[in-house]
Amino acid sequence: MQLESILQQRFGYSSFRSGQKEVIEQILNGKDVIALLPTGMGKSLCYQLPGYVLNKTVLVISPLLSLMQDQVDQMKLFGEKRVIALNSFLNKEEKNRVINGLEQYRFIFISPEMLAQRQVQQKLNRIELSLIVVDEAHCISQWGFDFRPDYLRIGEMFGTSRSPILALTATATNKVLEDIELYLNMKEPFKYIHSVDRPNIHLSKMSFSNREEKLEWLFQHVSNTAGPGIIYTQSRSKTHSISETLLQNGISAASYHGGMDLLDRQFIQQQFIEGTLDWIVATNAFGMGIHKQDVRQIIHESIPSNMANYMQEIGRAGRDGNDAVAILLYSEHDEELAKFVGIDDLPLEQHVDIFEEYQRNGQDATQMLKQGEISETAFRVLNYWMEQKTPNEVKTIFQNMKIEKMQKVEEVMKLITSDTCMRETLVHYFGQTLNDKPEQCCINCGLDLAQLLIAKEEKNLSSFSMTWQERITNLLTKKS
């Protein structure tokens, strides 16, 4: 059967989007594949369709619980019953039941940490997989070295005699692509690299003499222009203070960060997706896997710690293909906060010495956690590298990480201070060439921000003047 026929019968589409067919054909030929496809290009189809053709289990390694659950829910909506997310949402009884019956599922979603558990590994070794998928594969390089080291173990978990691996991401530099290939132990993978440029996202930046002036501009701007929008900031406390000020000004907004209760985060996400909330004020914990098509504005209240985060975050705007704006705000000393956030969870040299001392005394190094000598994240990273290298080598690795994170902040600062095209700078950072510039490209190319932004009153008037039939249509569209 031709792929187009399966596409029509299973998914209701008459044609493939750019890159989908090329990727799927290589998978069906048994090749490892790295696919860089922008958000909204239908990455999930690249593993779902082969799952139906090959008719064996597809394992999808995914970074976030909310992302996994969303993907599972979407597949169930389209009639797929043999799909499961094996994660901490399950209680002990549910988890054991799912693991014991894993072979009955066509699609299994799992985190790298759950994949590393011996019970799960033993069960997966007895299942014939058709495909191993690493979704958001840039996390291998972006999170593996200093945050979630189980990402670096994925390749060794499957050995050499394994099913094809598909690595999917929307943004990756050449270095990240090399890390993906290396740490997944890929065998001469086929690479499909789409342009990272999103022409419908128009780029702007503004500098202020101090933070108070910046916040005053932000509150006035959000009060006068239409959302939906996301305001990114670097600290959890700022998410609360900014969202509270917006609420006091009559703007429907909420804060979001990784320290919040899981159910609270899910509730806020759902409100934003359904349109109950116009603005989310968030750390970089928000956005991955959030399928909202009509985000019109992304505002960075303070500069991100690296260009990759910035590109991923602005990429959450304009997924419907309509115009959207990304505004990067800067005030003096913002880079100092960005550097602090970047290195805050890195283990220190003294942690290496303490870890080594525990080992010399025949004690379990996890005592460091119980004694409050190190954070959980830092210990996880320290434990991984102490398994791989000598203590002196580990100290050098952490020192190099610190230097690299400082340099990444300086790369973002170049975007702030340079008068060259912002779009060109971003595309070149990812090792690509910008062939065409859209109209109203960026602030350095003469962008007129006022022409792109819809006034709040105009949007409200437009909403008020809708007929009841249009309102019903909009509600049904949101729910579907």
From TrEMBL:
Limits of the Helicase C-terminal domain: 214-373
UniProt keyword annotations, A-Z: ATP-binding, DNA-binding, Helicase, Hydrolase, Nucleotide-binding
Transmembrane domains' residue ranges: none
GO biological process terms on file: DNA recombination; DNA repair
Gene3D superfamilies per the UniProt record, alphabetical: P-loop containing nucleotide triphosphate hydrolases (3.40.50.300)
PROSITE patterns with a match to the protein in the record: DEAH_ATP_HELICASE, HELICASE_ATP_BIND_1, HELICASE_CTER
SUPFAM superfamilies named in the record: P-loop containing nucleoside triphosphate hydrolases (SSF52540)
Ranges of residues in domain Helicase ATP-binding: 24-190
InterPro entries, per the entry: DEAD/DEAH_box_helicase_dom (IPR011545), DNA/RNA_helicase_DEAH_CS (IPR002464), DNA_helicase_ATP-dep_RecQ (IPR004589), Helicase_ATP-bd (IPR014001), Helicase_C-like (IPR001650), P-loop_NTPase (IPR027417), RecQ_Zn-bd (IPR032284)
One cellular component (GO) term of this entry: replisome
Gene Ontology molecular function: 3'-5' DNA helicase activity; ATP binding; DNA binding; four-way junction helicase activity; hydrolase activity
Protein name: ATP-dependent DNA helicase RecQ
Organism for this UniProt entry: Ureibacillus endophyticus
Origin organism lineage: Bacteria, Bacillati, Bacillota, Bacilli, Bacillales
